[in-house]
Design a protein that fits this description.
- This protein is an alpha+beta fold and 317 residues long.
- Helix content is 17%, strand content 29%.
- The strands form four sheets. Strands 10, 11, 12, 13, 14, 15 and 16 form a seven-stranded antiparallel β-sheet that branches. The protein has a four-stranded antiparallel β-sheet with strand order 2-8-4-5, with no helix packed on it. Strands 1-9-3 form a three-stranded antiparallel β-sheet.
- Strand 6 and strand 7 form a beta hairpin.
- Helix 1 crosses helix 2 and helix 1 runs parallel beside helix 3.
- The protein is globular, with a radius of gyration of 19 Å.
- The relative contact order is 0.17.
């Protein structure tokens, strides 16, 4: 679901609230990740929450504000159903709605909000390539390890976002990976890998960004054919992804920038030791397993207004 939203009035406490209609995906879902595009200047912030039908409880998915020193930006701890950026309703749910609250003396603006839901069942068989033609996008290479001494070992997500924004021509001038890391940092999680926060910042810069899940690499090929690289979340045990700079990982972000003629995956892996060594080509089956089993096919889709998505690319796969 993605909607442009309007607020009719402010409450006496200075807080505006918008609640979405009920959204029915047509199946019982077990997890939800929200995405939004918002402008929240200093002194302003938004709250995003979700609710399942039949429950009175709202589950806080985070507070967002813009800037490298955003005092209000944080995920919320203490809810057993929320794991940083993922809501997992107990027992599953068949419908949900989102709520946004706006705070601050300087009014924040929410341009879009949406969510992707899934039932947690992932294909294990390697998909066949769409076509036997190589297609590789010209995505600049950036290594997070260049900044290892100042925290870069944990900056795979902002590094991947920076590469995709640079490809789109929307990375702000003189913006380096540490700057991006500060823009998406989540103090409650003490890291920069919050999926919703990364796409919220990227949406402000590129015009459009959201988290979704794809069924397999054939879906990813459609985005590459449309000229849109993807940031993919992977996880794999030691040795399961041949030629990867990270021997094994419980969570890592890479850029899918293309495919070889045989269907193998051409990536920019920010875990490489240098910018020059970031480009990595991975076996299709190994990569698809690390991606689908590791995160359920999670990707960041980041694109400009003049870059149309492939059919179904808003997340209705």
């Amino acid at each position: 679901m993605t909607r442009r939203i309007r607020y009719d009035a402010w409450s006496p406490t200075g807080v505006a609230t918008w609640t979405s209609p009920w959204c029915e995906p047509g199946f019982t879902f077990t997890d939800l990740v929200a995405s939004w595009s918002a402008t929240a200047p200093r002194g302003a912030w938004i709250e995003v929450a979700a609710q399942s039908r039949g429950s009175r409880a709202w589950h806080d998915l985070g507070h967002w504000s813009s800037g490298t020193r955003a005092a209000r930006r944080t995920s919320i701890t203490g809810d057993p159903e929320v794991d940083t950026d993922v809501w997992r309703p107990a027992g599953g749910a068949d419908a949900y709605r989102l709520r946004v609250r706006l705070h601050g003396d300087r009014t924040p603006v929410v341009h879009r909000i949406g969510a992707v839901v899934s039932a947690g069942s992932w294909r294990q068989k390697t998909s066949a390539p769409l076509r036997r033609v190589a297609r590789v996008l010209d995505v600049p290479r950036l290594s997070q390890m260049t900044y290892a001494e100042v925290g870069g070992r944990g900056w795979c997500s902002p590094s991947s976002v920076a590469m995709v924004l640079s490809h789109a021509g929307t990375l702000p001038p003189a913006t380096d990976i540490p700057t991006v890391a500060r823009q998406v940092h989540d103090p409650a999680w003490t890291g920069t890998g919050n999926w919703s926060f990364n796409t919220a910042w990227a949406a402000h810069e590129a015009g459009n960004a959201f988290v979704t899940r794809l069924r397999d690499l054939r879906d990813a090929e459609r985005f590459v054919d449309a000229g849109i690289p993807l940031v993919a979340s992977v996880a794999y045990p030691p040795g399961a992804l041949t030629r990867a700079p990270t021997h094994g990982t419980v969570g890592h972000l890479v850029v899918i920038r293309g495919f070889t003629a045989t269907g193998d995956v051409v990536t920019n892996d920010p875990g490489a030791p240098s910018d020059r060594s970031v480009r990595r080509t991975y076996d299709r089956g190994e990569f698809e397993g690390a991606w689908l089993s590791g995160s359920g096919g999670v990707v960041y889709v980041i694109h400009r207004d003049d870059q149309p998505l492939p059919a179904g690319g808003r997340g209705a796969w």
